[in-house]
Task: inverse folding
């Protein structure tokens, strides 16, 4: 059965008929063509599917598309318009926080969610904010450095 949802996606009002019980991850990737979202574990463990919902980092693999109704949602494709997000992305590049890049979109969304709620986050708070995002490549130190530099300066 189809249901219609109305929500804000990357700054634009969207009204869309969706198949009931479709995951938000599948809807955003397949129907809205937002391919920054990846699927890793599919069970809320890896964080590569992270999106921003009402300024909070959420695993889109654990959410149904109909739960997006009425919410404000951002993916990397929309966040890139914000200067503070661009600065975060630049620092990921500068500090070698991107290797294979598979975890990067989710890492960026989780870090940006932290930046929105905490303007001077400590290293511990940064670690906590990305604790749901797994990275197989970097050992996390460059990622933490990139986030810390963005929030607290060099
Ligand atoms: Fe969603 Fe792993 S794919 S947390
Ligand atoms: Fe490869 Fe993080 S850069 S998984």
Result:
């Amino acid at each position: 059965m189809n249901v219609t949802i109305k929500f804000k996606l990357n700054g634009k009002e969207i009204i869309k008929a969706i198949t009931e019980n479709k995951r938000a991850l599948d809807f955003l990737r397949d129907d809205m063509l937002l391919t920054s979202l990846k699927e890793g574990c599919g069970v809320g463990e890896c964080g590569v599917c992270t999106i921003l919902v009402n300024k909070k980092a959420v695993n889109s693999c654990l959410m149904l598309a109909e739960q997006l109704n009425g919410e404000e949602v951002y993916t990397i494709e929309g966040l890139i318009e914000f200067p503070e997000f661009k600065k975060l992305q630049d620092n990921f590049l500068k500090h070698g926080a991107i290797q294979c890049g598979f975890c990067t979109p989710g890492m960026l969304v989780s870090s940006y969610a932290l930046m929105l709620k905490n303007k001077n986050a400590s290293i511990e708070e940064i670690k906590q904010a990305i604790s749901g995002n797994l990275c197989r490549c970097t050992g996390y130190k460059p990622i933490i450095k990139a986030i810390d530099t963005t929030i607290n300066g060099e």
Summary: The helical segments are 24-31, 76-79, 83-94, 104-117, 123-129, 141-152. The longest strand covers residues 2-9.
